[in-house]
Amino acid sequence: MTAAAVTSPDAASATVTTVRSAAAGALLDLVPASGGLSWVRRGDGLVGWGEAARLEVSGPDALAEAAAWWESVVAGLDVSDDLAVPGSGPVAFASIAFDPVRGTSVFVVPEVVVGRRDGLSWITSIGDAARDGLPAAAPDLGPGPRLRYADGALDPASWSAAVATAVQRIAAGDLAKVVLARDLLVAADEPLDPRRLLRRLAERFPDCWTFAVDGLLGATPELLLRRTGRELSSRVLAGTVRRGAGAEDERLAAALMGSAKDRAEHALAVDSLVQALEPYCSDLAAPAEPALLTLANVRHLATDVVGTQRGDAGLLELVGAVHPTAAVCGTPTPDAAALIAELEGMDRGRYAGPVGWMDARGDGEFGLALRCAELTDDGGARLFAGCGIVAGSDPAAELAETQAKFAAFRAALEG
Length: 415
Known about the structure:
eleven-stranded antiparallel beta sheet, 8 helices, 35% strand, 13-stranded mixed beta sheet
């Protein structure tokens, strides 16, 4: 299947203006009520609005088609970018389907991008989009609407039964790991405002990347792939425990570091990423031991992988090579993907797919769309959470893990 929808800008100029850091304000305060784009961590990153070009694509060559489309968009622009740092100049925000062959991936080139990195801020505009200057920061949005929750594709008991089935398949030797997810439906008495959600997520999870692309928004702790020049890096997360109070919190952290089950799950995720990246790298390094990543609601085992690219593969080719990792699918990948289709009972869409941005020089950052929600046409949302199932997984514990992950987004919804 080829591109489902394509728009490209008429011949136009793309201009980068460097501004004082304070002039850009808080990036997320600039996001409009609809159609806003975001990739922000600890105040740095990119936000955008307007739509100079758009691509929706699916099929076996989806990412190759997207790369060719982006190349053609850039070739049609007269770019003035003396700053030339990652994220300056024309940028495409992307939200790629978990299964790019069957699902629809979305790429959006905003008319205006405001970026910040290490105290330096800039504005990129295509055509005259920024002639009126930056918008005023949105006012305090106040409390959110009243919410109602409902089970998604599977109720908790049915999902736990699916986990038990997966554990049986693993014990039988069919596969080593599978990641099973569930969804939760949210109805609101007035449409959810993405600006409120993004601000609350960023405040609660400053070490995550707060993202928004075409109605999918969240705060992901997992960096699938960053490319800066020929430098590649990734942060792998697998193995999770909830937070506790006082001494219990430290006990839970120590138990996670010492858990054979979680360490085995984490090793599978790191190995799958390293094996996928090795053919593209002249050197690649991953620490022998994971570290602890501490967030407001959970802790994860984390490993940062770094390497140097060889060859001329583009960023989307690299993303396609590493996705899906064992962290969001399982091991072996084909067997895990087949079991997900059999047991989950839902279409993941763009949940657990790559999300991020790429610029005209080939630099970019892609995380995994986790701790996220998809805004729905009726003003509500569909939340997602999943966990890795390996030998010895307990369905009740895995259900509790998904509930802890749902809590991350529910806190942003409820305030």
